[in-house]
């Protein structure tokens, strides 16, 4: 190995950062559609976790500022999605687990704003769909647990971390996003735990059920 190649390798290794996420909450759903028919109906657990090294939006969260930006697809929470981990549900059936890691401040914002929390849940579901080409059930539940299994210490380069605006929802129609935000504004106080409809299926049936709280 040449000295220049060794130096390049060392620089790349130095740039890598290992996330050490802290647990937040869990989303429980299942696979509705998949090219692999054997995976249909498989339960999926999404660990929403947080780490200070994950970038946050350039504009801090203020509802009156951020919701209009969401409508224009100009504001989102960067999400680091782990690789799939195999697990089992409480009945012993195979299940899949993903970690969706966000910035510590973003997690605090979602604790304060239930509307933003609902939007984050949808973004996490869609992030997994984008990298796996499966369709997940939107009638999810929120189990009484901080995480499903151990959280993944994902390794990323500094460049990858700075590029975390990867999850862009460019195909969303502005009126659909506006309808989502307006629905949250109108209904958030009366039904704070209302399930968020899919951003790709706003107005469809079965989008108003309340998430269940389950013991696993």
Automatic annotation (TrEMBL):
One cellular component term from this protein's GO annotations in UniProt = R2TP complex
- Matching InterPro entries: PIH1/Kintoun_subfamily, PIH1_N
**Where are the compositionally biased (Basic and acidic residues) regions?**
207-216
**One example of a Gene Ontology biological process annotation:** rRNA processing
Residue span(s) of domain PIH1 N-terminal:
13-156
**Disordered: where is this region?**
188-216
Which family does the entry's similarity section mention? Belongs to the PIH1 family.
Q: What is this protein called?
A: PIH1 N-terminal domain-containing protein
Q: Which organism is it from?
A: Candida theae
């Amino acid at each position: 190995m040449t000295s220049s190649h060794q130096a390049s390798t060392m620089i790349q290794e130095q740039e890598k950062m290992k996330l050490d996420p802290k647990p937040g909450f869990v989303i429980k759903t299942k696979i509705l559609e998949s090219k692999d028919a054997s995976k249909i109906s498989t339960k999926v657990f999404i660990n929403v976790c947080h780490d200070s090294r994950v970038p946050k939006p350039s504009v801090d969260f203020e509802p009156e500022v951020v919701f209009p930006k969401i409508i224009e697809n100009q504001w989102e929470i960067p999400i680091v999605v782990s690789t799939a981990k195999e697990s089992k549900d409480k009945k012993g059936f195979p299940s899949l687990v993903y970690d969706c890691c966000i910035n510590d401040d973003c997690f605090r914002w979602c604790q304060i704003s239930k509307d933003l929390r609902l939007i984050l849940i949808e973004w996490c579901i869609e992030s997994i769909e984008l990298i796996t080409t499966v369709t997940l059930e939107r009638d999810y539940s929120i189990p009484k647990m901080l995480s499903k299994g151990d959280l993944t210490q994902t390794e990323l380069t500094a460049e990858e971390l700075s590029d975390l605006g990867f999850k862009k929802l460019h195909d969303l129609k502005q009126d659909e996003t506006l309808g989502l935000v307006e629905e949250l504004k109108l209904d958030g106080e009366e039904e704070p735990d209302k399930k968020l409809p899919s951003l790709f299926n706003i107005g469809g049936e079965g989008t108003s059920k309340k998430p269940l709280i389950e013991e696993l």
